[in-house]
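re the bet — no i am not wrong, look at it urself. input seq straight from the record:
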Amino acid sequence: MDSRNVSITTFFIITGIPDEPLMQFIFFLLILLIYLITLGGNVTILLLVCLDHHLHTPMHYAPAPMYFFLANLSILDISCSTIMLHKIIFSFIWGDNIVSVLECFVQIFFFLAFTCDELLILTAMSYDRYVAICNPLRYHSVMNSKLCSLLAFLCWLFGFLESTPTFMEILKLTCFKSVRMDHFFCDIMPVLKLTCSDTSFLQLYILTVGGVLSGFTPFALTFISYIFIIGTILSVNSSNSRHKAFYTCSSHLTVVTCLYVSLVLQYLRPTSSINLGSNKYFSLFNAAAIPILNPLIYSLKNKDIKAAVMRRIRFVAVSSNT
């Protein structure tokens, strides 16, 4: 390789944002609006889960398992969107689209960790739905607060542990063909495209551990849970009960489908075949659209959440009139 095209890099210039001033302004407003809605929606869900006793267990000591995991999902969405979108927002405000290599790699680490955490939390939620529908009489004894807390802790822990080897490997990358990254923020695929270092082990790790252990295993567990759920629902004689059971799972199933489809399109391809022009939009969808979809889907499709929102609105209205 021509040494003139290679250098020891200490920073990247993020160039994925459109060059035209009007397009930049529209893009900035869109990203800012998405982030504010994501923040507002997920904070609202967190407050509802914490404050509304109708979303708690019968003893009112803690949120019901489904809403406990939903609160964890909201924390993940807030964290992921903040980590990934803050640079886009600040680059418009301050005009600075330069990011240090270390900051870039740390951003990649947290994005991978939060994505893995989200897959695992959604898997835990599918198990919660399985117990609720397939074994309802034992639901509260099985999905007790200790088990829910343990599952949530393991989900968070494994996500960060799984991403640590990737982070340690990308820290070894010092040689890059260019400092210009055609992306909206730092992501693993454009870094692998830019580097002139040997990435064979890193790519193998991403496809095996990242693809199989962090991607396929949660998918398989979620799929198995829904096989049993659908089988139980179809065995119910009452059409009204079947519809109610399907409706209970629809929010979770919609979120799972959106996330897995976007991840497959983004990551489960060889690096050589990835088009960064299209890949950056899949990355933006994962970082911006998925976190905003979660509160919207759960708010629109979950009767308990909608009822909790109406109770809070009535409470505020009554309080303001007294």
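see?? DSSP finds ten helices and five strands in the chain. told u. also Residues 200-234 form the longest helix (35 residues). so pay up
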